[in-house]
Amino acid sequence: MKARQDGQATIERLWKPLFAAIDKSRLRRAKTGFKQGEIVQLRFSSGEWLGSVALASGYRRIEQFHLPALGDWRPYASHMAKWLARRPDWYAELLSGVWGGEWLDWLEHAGLPVVPNEQTVHLWRQKAHCTCEDGDPFCRHVLAGFLFIVEEMQASPIDSFRFFGLHVQDFQDSVHQAMHKLWQEQFPDGKIRDGDSVHSSAEILDNVPWENLKSDTPLDFLKTSRRFRLLFENAEPVYLNKK
Predict the structure, then answer these.
(1) Domain ranges in the chain?
(2) How far apart are CA 123 and CA 243, in angstroms?
(3) Which parts of the sequence belong to the SWIM-type domain (predicted)?
(4) Which residues contact 212 (CB under 8 A, 6 or more apart)?
(5) Could you tell me if 67 and 48 are in contact, meaning their C-beta atoms sit under 8 angstroms apart?
(6) Mean pLDDT, the chain, whole residue set
(7) Please, are residues 137 and 129 in contact by the beta-carbon 8 Å criterion?
């Protein structure tokens, strides 16, 4: 998966191969239901996506579906937070509604998918289940769920982390705390002087048994130093849930 154009259309474009393989009439019905607001809820629970769809056809009824989630990021949340602390430009992009190309490349390198591949689609076809009478695992309700997730991921990348098992406010607190820790390590007295920079050798990443995080990456952390200054010079640390 190569670097993509930055922008809110990125996720939709990356999911396009999945929808292109779906029967057009089936997908059209799913889009109609989705646009009419039939998705009542869709949430992550124990590694699965659970969805409820409200239908109004003569009488109102609820269909429910479940399938394996695209990914479970919970075991890696602290490591993700530390990497975003090292790359505040990535974090700023996410907060502004953009899935940046470098962030997407990093997620792929780390083994944290945001786009289904052939293996995922095969698993979904085996495991997806809906209470409707459609025998196809990709019924209109499951497809509407996919459309809902894609729209949410486009509209607010950071909020869509909930679809991967993360509590968004807690995760953002972790990012801010990691940023504050890095700031204290690099500038103990809180002052930036000429010639100072955010060193890529700062020991902020734990020694974790996760090969993708420990392996070499093409990312140049030194280029973040200027952005780091712009974001944090003369600023107090920010916590979302400060008591």
Answers:
(1) 10-73+113-164, 75-111+167-243
(2) 43
(3) 119-150
(4) 109, 110, 111
(5) yes
(6) 79
(7) yes
Helix (H, G, I), strand (E, B) or coil at 20: helix
SS3 content of the chain, % helix, strand, coil (to 5): 50, 10, 40
Exposure of 8 in the CB half-sphere (CA atoms within 13 A): 12
Distance of CA 203 to the CA centre of its chain: 26
CB 123 within 8 A of CB 18: no
Structure tokens of 95? 């907060």
Contact (Cβ atoms closer than 8 angstroms) between residue 136 and residue 129: no
Q: Which residues contact 184 (CB under 8 A, 6 or more apart)?
A: none
> Which pTM value belongs to this model?
0.75
Angle at CA of residue 3, ends 96 and 68, nearest 5° = 75
CA dist list (Å): 225 to 5, 125, 204, 232: 24, 46, 15, 11
Beta bridge pairs of residue 49: 44, 67
Pairwise CA distance, residues 103 & 173, whole Å: 19
Q: What is the pLDDT of residues 11-34, one digit of tens each?
A: 989 999 999 999 999 999 999 999
Residue pLDDT, tens place only, 208-239: 333 444 333 333 333 343 444 444 443 344 33
Distance of CA 7 to the CA centre of its chain: 14
> Would you say 63 and 143 are in contact if contact means Cβ atoms under 8 Å apart?
no
For 231, the enclosing helix (H) or strand (E) is: helix 225-232
